[in-house]
Design goal:
The protein is an alpha+beta fold. The protein folds into four domains: 125 residues, Alpha Horseshoe (Serine Threonine Protein Phosphatase 5, Tetratricopeptide repeat); 299 residues, TolB, C-terminal domain (Neuraminidase, 6 Propeller), CATH 2.120.10; 86 residues, Immunoglobulin-like (Sandwich); 111 residues, 2-Layer Sandwich (60s Ribosomal Protein L30, Chain: A), CATH 3.30.1330.60. Helix content is 21%, strand content 28%. The strands form nine sheets. Strands 2, 3, 4, 5 and 6 form a five-stranded antiparallel sheet that branches. Strands 7, 8, 9, 10 and 11 form a five-stranded antiparallel sheet that branches. It has a four-stranded antiparallel sheet with strand order 1-22-21-20, with no helix packed on it. Strand 2 and strand 3 form a beta hairpin. It is elongated, with a radius of gyration of 31 Å. The N and C termini lie far apart (68 Å).
């Protein structure tokens, strides 16, 4: 009987639920303390309430909570509880490196905003790579008198160890290039557990993206189920990924673990057996068959989440938390072939590789003398790190060695896979910043020393990088030259300012894809310098909607051609502050020649004015029409008044109360430019609105 346990093997259990999430402090944003002005409060409070609902949902919903809280922050950025919850939501989602600013601001505004504020600041500083500052805050937390759970004390102590390891390990750096594998492989969901065919032309991997409307999201982290995707290499580039077939793409969880050399047997994790078991699928007539139980006695009532044959095929290594007398968490185990049909009982791989913490993603080097795996123990510098252990002549594994920076970071780094065709290349998965979202799969390559070819490294000397079957041992490399991971994204950047003073404006910014009318990015500009940064899915046309309390909202269209060469597109905007007496020119309000009949091209701008009135229900305005000085004064006065009336009638037809609208025609009497030029006359022919009440 199949037990539908709805478990996803790696990400769900090991990465996305750090131990302190269950003990998260429930900080309450009080309505009376959040309110600081009548204008914009109701909308902002709705954002707070929606954000609180998402925050309570935990898991993937922290990202949605962050988006809602950021909108509320446009109204009030000085509420300590809101700043705390924005920082916490960022820390528990894919925005970890954005958590520091708000958490520190919350602490400055109210040092006792939450019992764990110093713990969260320390954790956020660690994710930002500010290790010494993180240690200081974490020690301050441990030495404080606030109530602490044993879980949080253990977490703080572990983070301090990681930061100290990071400061030591990052002093020595290998010359390695690291590149995101791109949008044909990665998505805004998690991608990981990559495998390659023997010729390196096909990649299989797990993804938690939404594939179908029936995709299952009934997991504690609210993400979609794991599915197996594959892609082929064509002309040096990976083709868009496809599912691996109906039997490997169910409404439950499957992840690829090991591909036979012949490419016709795929061992996989299945989340619908017990707490997750290893099964295998055979490829016949080009199709993967339904997974079957493996003949090896390694599955337990617990979770088995990693599996690999040694290159000799005389040993199988796997990861389990269901075998008694383990060292703690998930451990690496192995079985040995005794005869053609008989294998040994599982044995623990021992303290050289296993720790009281979780181990995961075990794999062999091509020659089998090196075991690659990830661990939260040993001298990790944050989350999971990639380690290797080398087998000595007696067959024992040496103590695990951290693969070093920049392979390992303060983020999670797992699933190291040596390239099957290039000894200087490898692949791995990481959720470090700069990716598409969640875990992404990256390609790494060992670079030769600057201006020096790779030579045979014998005899060994100090200050060398030793390569043994793709094992990288870093020892006092000088100088530490690092090629940072390339950021695969395309970004919209810019600055939001006050049109009158030029001062920075804190604004909520939505980027809307014109083709689908979907919001593809939401961010906020800095209240310090007005700058903003939003990641875009591609180079195309967008509407960018800017909103800030006390300013008129504004929406602009930007057109980014596919041939645009740079990886950032800059767009600055000055918002108009709302105040009585302020006049605003309505651009692109066009009429039929000599008439007061609006053209269809005017409707976009008029609908923007309609939106402003809807956002500010107490606002009363005067619509004014203006002409140049060509022709009869009396006709121009009548024409300008008729055109102003036409705008009012359009707004009333759209539902605006007529008591909120007045209109006047000024003809040529209020020019804004010289009527002696055609350009000046064009500027004088305009429609404006003036704020009468607010």
């Amino acid at each position: 009987m199949i037990m539908r346990s709805y478990l996803c093997g790696f990400v769900l259990i090991l990465i996305l639920y750090p131990s302190f999430l269950s003990a998260q402090i429930n900080v309450v944003i009080l309505k009376k303390e959040f309110r600081n002005d009548k204008t914009g409060f109701e909308a902002a409070w709705e954002n707070v309430k929606t954000g609180d609902d998402f925050f309570a949902g935990k898991g993937v919903w922290y990202g949605s909570a962050y988006d809602e809280y950021i909108k509320a922050m446009v109204y009030n950025n000085s509420n300590p509880e809101l700043n705390y919850k924005i920082g916490a939501a960022a820390l528990f989602s894919d925005r970890k490196d954005e958590a520091v600013t708000c958490l520190q601001r919350a602490y400055e505004l109210k040092s006792d905003v939450a019992e764990d504020i110093l713990l969260l600041i320390g954790r956020a500083l660690q994710y930002s790579g500010r290790f010494s500052e993180a240690v200081e805050k974490l020690n301050e937390y441990l030495g404080s008198s606030v109530k602490k759970s044993g879980e949080n004390i253990a977490l703080a102590e572990k983070c301090i160890e990681e930061c100290n390891s990071a400061m030591n390990i990052t002093r020595d750096t290998a010359r390695i290039s690291i590149t995101n594998m791109g949008s044909n492989i990665n998505s805004n969901a998690d991608e990981y557990s990559e495998l390659f065919s023997a010729d390196g032309q096909t990649i299989f991997y797990a993804s938690r993206r939404e594939l179908f409307t029936r995709s299952n999201s009934s997991y504690p982290d609210s993400k979609f189920d794991e599915n197996i995707l594959f892609s082929n290499l064509y002309n040096g580039a990976w083709e868009p990924s496809m599912t691996a077939g109906k039997h490997l793409t169910t409404n439950y969880c499957e992840a690829p673990l090991y591909l036979s050399r012949s490419g016709d047997q795929l061992y996989l994790y299945t989340g619908y057996e017990n707490d997750g078991d290893i099964e295998f699928s055979e490829k016949k007539k080009g199709q993967w068959k339904a997974p079957e139980r493996i003949p090896y006695k390694i599955n337990t009532s617990g979770s088995e989440s990693s599996f690999t044959f040694a290159p000799s095929e005389q040993e199988i290594y796997f990861v389990s938390n269901g075998i008694k007398k383990g060292m703690g968490g998930k451990d690496i185990y192995f079985i040995r072939r005794i005869s053609d049909r008989k294998w040994s009982e599982p044995q623990n791989a021992g303290p050289a590789v296993n720790t009281p913490f979780d181990e995961e993603s075990v794999r062999f080097s091509k020659l089998g003398d090196t075991l690659w795996f990830s661990s939260k123990g040993h001298n990790t510098i944050g989350g999971f790190d990639i380690f290797f252990s080398v087998k000595d002549q007696s067959g024992m594994w040496s103590n695990a060695v951290n693969a070093g920076y920049p392979i390992n970071t303060q983020w999670d780094d797992l699933f190291y896979y040596p390239s099957p065709v290039d000894d200087s290349a490898f692949y791995f998965a990481t959720n470090r910043s700069g990716g598409f979202g969640g875990l992404d799969i990256y390609h790494g390559r060992l670079l030769p020393p600057e201006s020096e070819p790779i030579v045979q490294l014998s005899p060994l000397k100090r200050d060398t990088v030793v390569i043994r079957d793709t094992v990288i041992i870093v020892k006092d490399v000088q100088p530490p030259v690092v090629e940072q991971p390339e950021d695969p994204g395309f970004y919209l950047t810019g600055k939001v300012t006050d049109s009158e003073s030029g001062e920075p404006v804190l604004a909520k910014i939505d980027v809307i894809e014109i083709a689908t009318n979907k919001t593809v990015a939401t961010t906020a500009s800095s209240d310090i310098d007005g700058t903003y940064r939003a990641k875009l899915p591609s180079k195309q046309s967008y509407y960018v909607d800017f909103r800030s309390t006390g300013f008129l909202s504004d929406m602009k269209r930007i057109n980014i051609p596919e041939t645009y060469a740079r990886e950032t597109y800059n767009f600055d905007i000055a918002l108009i502050k709302v105040r009585v007496g302020k006049k605003v020119v309505l651009n692109n309000i066009l009429f039929e020649t000599g008439k007061s009949i609006l053209t269809k091209s005017s409707f976009t701008e008029l609908d923007r004015l309609l939106q402003i009135l809807e956002e500010n229900p107490l606002m009363r305005i005067e619509i004014s029409g203006h002409t140049d000085n060509t022709g009869s004064l009396s006709l121009n006065l009548k024409l300008s008044e008729d055109r102003a009336r036409a705008v009012v009638e359009y707004l009333v037809q759209k539902g605006v109360d007529s008591s909120r609208l007045e209109f006047k025609g000024f003809g040529p009497n209020q020019p804004v430019a010289d009527n002696s030029t055609s350009a000046g006359r064009a500027m004088n022919r305009r429609v404006e609105f003036k704020i009468l009440e607010f």
